[in-house]
Amino acid sequence: LLWPTMALSWGLNLFQRGLAAMGRIGELLDEPPQEDSCAPAALTLPVRGAIEVRRLSYSYPPRPKENENEESREEDSVALSEVSFRIEPGEWLAVVGPVGAGKSTLAKLFLRLLSLPSNTLFLDGQDASQMSLGEYRRVVGYVPQDAFLFGDSIRENVRLGGVELEAAALEEAVRRACLAQDFDQFPMGFDTVVGERGITLSGGQRSRVALARALVRDPAVLVFDDTL
């Protein structure tokens, strides 16, 4: 009876994990797509990539109290306060600080993954909060802390379901991401399947695939969230 009991335990565990995952997937599918709140301004082309941040502040909603006697945690919700800087085209800016200083929040605001206050972030002199969300994100590349790769080929992970890319653009992105030096380890080149979450790749290789994904469309602005 030992092996059937173990199999039953494993099956019940897998079933519970599946139920939890389906609940999260359902919440995501029910979430309405993010849309522009007003008529967006046209993006002036070509984009040079000049960035200016003016007195940018951001606060997360306060965390709920765990009990009635606990004091308000509103002060803990402030992530950024009066941040200002300017980056000219071709320049790099490193934002450093301890954990919780707001570095990832700043990166998310650059991508407008969080609600960006008006008149705080400007791209080539235009208010980024008033631009079309789709057009804006097409000119901003992003490399996250935790590079998520799908159980598909390197080619599909780099293009990320986008339009068909020319081989030259794909090879150039891979070269700029310093991933070409690893291709000797990939038996099928761009068609090598990397496994779920890129399990067959090293941590550095996963980061370089994510970097190639950001570079392949040659964005005017690149945002790295603790990846260099």
Descriptive account of the structure:
With 228 residues, the protein is an alpha+beta fold. It has 6 helices and 6 strands; from the N terminus they run αββαββαβαααβ. It starts with a helix and ends with a strand. Strand 3 and strand 4 (126-127) form a beta hairpin.
Topology diagram in text:
Layout: H1 2-30, E1 51-59, E2 78-87, H2 103-111, E3 121-123, E4 126-127, H3 133-138, E5 140-143, H4 154-159, H5 167-176, H6 203-215, E6 221-224
Parallel strand pairs: 5-6
Antiparallel strand pairs: 1-2, 1-3, 3-4
Helix pairs in contact: 5-6
Physical arrangement of strands within the biggest beta sheet: 2-1-3-4
What is the overall pLDDT average? 80
**Unreliable residue stretches:** none
Amount of beta strand: 5-15%
Order of helices and strands: HEEHEEHEHHHE
Cα end-to-end separation:
53 Å
Rg for CA atoms: 22 Å
Number of helices: 6
Q: Which secondary-structure class do the elements indicate?
A: alpha+beta
The biggest beta sheet, please?
4 strands, antiparallel
State the shape: globular
